[in-house]
Amino acid sequence: MLKRMIVLLSVLAMSGCGGVDPDSPLGKRKVIFKEMLNLSEDLGGMLRGRIAFDEQTFAEKARRLDEISRQPWQHFDAEAKESKSSARDDVWEQRERFMQLARELEGTTALLLQSAQQQPLNPDALGVRIDVVEKACEGCHQEFRIY
């Protein structure tokens, strides 16, 4: 019985990995997007009261979000089109539009960072900025992600 449980847990753990090579373009994108999501959730959580607000932590997370917001796009080259991806074929077929939305996201994170560097931090202004970042993510997902 114990042996079956161990085998079952191993199979479940391996199936949760999705079999994505972490060194592939898809694997690299997934890592970056997951970090972006975690940072965005933490920033929004601080502003919405789910997480204790800490100015230094907020500013650091905003800096990191701005930094990595420029990284995933390089992993969407022509060879990166993979069947396991949640990206629609439109990413490659409408490359100009996709990159336009990527640049818009980068602009929103730059503005968030700029606001996060103005001491003392203004949670109301930051709330507006994080909402714009979230809407930029959502807009791109609606056009280019398979749900």
Automatic annotation (TrEMBL):
Molecular functions (GO terms): electron transfer activity; heme binding; iron ion binding
GO CC annotation, single: periplasmic space
One Pfam family cited in the UniProt record for this chain: Cytochrom_C_2
Domain of life per record: Bacteria
Heme in keyword set: yes
PTM section of the record: Binds 1 heme group per subunit.
Keyword Hydrolase annotated: no
Keywords noted in UniProt: Electron transport, Heme, Iron, Metal-binding, Transport
Chain positions recorded as heme c binding sites: 137, 140-141
One annotated GO biological process: electron transport chain
InterPro entries: Cyt_c/b562, Cyt_c_II, Cyt_c_prime
Record's protein name: Cytochrome c556
Organism listed in the record: Thiopseudomonas denitrificans
